[in-house]
Design a protein that fits this description.
There is one protein chain. It contains 6 helices and no strands. It has 203 residues and is mainly α. The longest helix has 37 residues. The N and C termini lie far apart (111 Å). Keywords: Membrane, Transmembrane, Transmembrane helix.
């Protein structure tokens, strides 16, 4: 007891056992991203955006500018037939087929408004002269033209549906009525503008 030297105690490392080696940095896993995976709360905080922009006036100005540009592209598409910027009601291969079927034929519907306007003018003139025969004649002309337009519209609707079935295998609801409404417009005023001439086959 008296001749044995006291053993020197090694200093204890903070947070560990005496004499234990200090752990070094953990090596990066091969193929890893080299950084710790963020927690769910951190990811949500990073993806969170303010609902109201800081500069509301600048945001409104930018929104109006974007809307004007979109309308300009849409107007240009109505004149060129560019499918990318057409309105939703005119977009799609089925609507394009219906437009081509309508534009490739002569439609009585586009002449209905012209005939109706002429008949009204003649009716007014004949009433001024007191001729009831001409009044009834002009009125009958309007109804006769209307009946012819209805028959022509039914034939056009069947033709559009038949073209749909031949190309796509079925007829989608609303496409035929879309074509009939287009046929009631004067060819020069139709939008999108016609892409085929009369008598040509649909694209």
């Amino acid at each position: 007891m008296f001749g044995r030297a006291k053993e020197k105690t090694r200093p204890q490392q903070p947070g560990g056992t005496a004499g234990a080696p200090t752990p070094g940095p953990v090596p990066a896993k091969p193929g890893g991203k080299g950084r710790p995976t963020p927690s769910r709360s951190e990811a949500q905080a990073r993806n969170r955006r303010p609902l109201v922009p800081a500069d509301r006036k600048a945001a409104r100005t930018a929104a109006r500018q974007a809307l004007r540009e979109e309308r300009a592209r849409m107007q240009q598409a109505l004149l060129t037939g560019d499918e990318r910027h057409l309105p939703a009601r005119d977009r799609g291969p089925r609507k394009r087929l219906a437009r081509d079927v309508v534009d490739a034929r002569h439609n009585l519907g586009e002449w209905f408004l012209v005939v109706a306007l002429i008949s009204l003018v003649l009716s007014s003139v004949t009433q001024a002269f007191g001729s009831l025969v001409l009044v009834w004649a002009t009125t009958g002309l309007i109804y006769l033209m209307l009946a012819a337009v209805v028959v022509d519209s039914v034939l056009l609707s069947r033709r559009i549906k038949r073209a749909e079935v031949e190309r796509f295998g079925d007829a989608e609801r609303g496409v035929a009525s879309y074509g009939v409404m287009r046929a009631l417009q004067v060819r020069r005023l139709r939008r999108p503008v016609p892409q085929v001439k009369r008598g040509e086959q649909p694209r």
